[in-house]
Amino acid sequence: MTEIYFEERYASNPDDVKRYDTNQLRKHFLVEKVFEANKILLTYSMYDRFIVGGAVPVGKLLSLETIDPLKSKHFCDRREVGVINIGGLGTVTVDGKDYELRSREGLYIGMGTTSIVFNSKSAEDPAWFYINSAPAHQSFPTTKIGQEETITLDLGKPEDANERQIIQYIVAANVSTCQLQMGITQLKTGSVWNTMPPHVHNRRMEVYLYIDLAKDQAIGHFMGDPLETRHIWMANHQAVISPPWSIHCASGTSNYSFVWGMAGENLDFMDMDKMECTELR
Ligand SMILES: O=C(O)C(=O)C[C@H](O)C(=O)CO
Ligand SMILES: [Zn+2]
């Protein structure tokens, strides 16, 4: 029996968030613990009913079984799932079929799947499976996204300290998906700003998981109404929920990467209402 822990997060009204103090901001939007050995940790956000979590199998299998808030027999009865491995070599077995995932490889799992089992090749270097999930209306085939199947966009400039690569895994151009999109953005050495100029997309919520950040470094993540921004200080392997009305961008004390995941009204990755950085308040 797999130990699955879940937490539920309700959606907040932007007018209320203006009055949140540091602890309230962290309680509602920060996901401090995403990964724990031999457990599946999940956070169910009411923003687009997006689930974010992690599975780290160390010397045993972990099975993504349903959780009570879903009131469904299987986790994927009404949902699709995206997985990106940020650890060592591992396998995801979907309805009996093995998908081997190296580090930075991804998997889309379609609605109607009845069994999802995570395994690591080695207990010394376990796989770290990062999980995103959203409600689905149609069953699309389970599809592995190797690094060669990703789409890379080069953005930013070193002189603006935001030179980075957006690596798209689950986007409509390469995987059939109902509403879930996922990818990784990697900042070049010396660049610290992601998503600058920032944007909102009222049609989609988004979650960022920060990775590749050294232990003695930190991320200052900006969120909120563009004219009422707030910040949350974050560490490596923490995630942050961005409501559809909120900007989501950060500066690190060094370079880093992050996994982004989105769900909502459309699959148009470029649907963003951008702000000039000089307009932010
Ligand atoms: O650095 C960036 O720019 C991003 O990675 C942007 C995210 O992908 C995003 O916010 C997409 O809506
Ligand atoms: Zn975004």
From TrEMBL:
The keyword Isomerase applies. GO terms for molecular function: 4-deoxy-L-threo-5-hexosulose-uronate ketol-isomerase activity. Keywords: Isomerase, Metal-binding, Zinc. Binds 1 zinc ion per subunit. Its cofactor is Zn(2+). Catalyzes the isomerization of 5-dehydro-4-deoxy-D-glucuronate to 3-deoxy-D-glycero-2,5-hexodiulosonate. This is 4-deoxy-L-threo-5-hexosulose-uronate ketol-isomerase. It comes from Agaribacillus aureus. The gene is kduI.
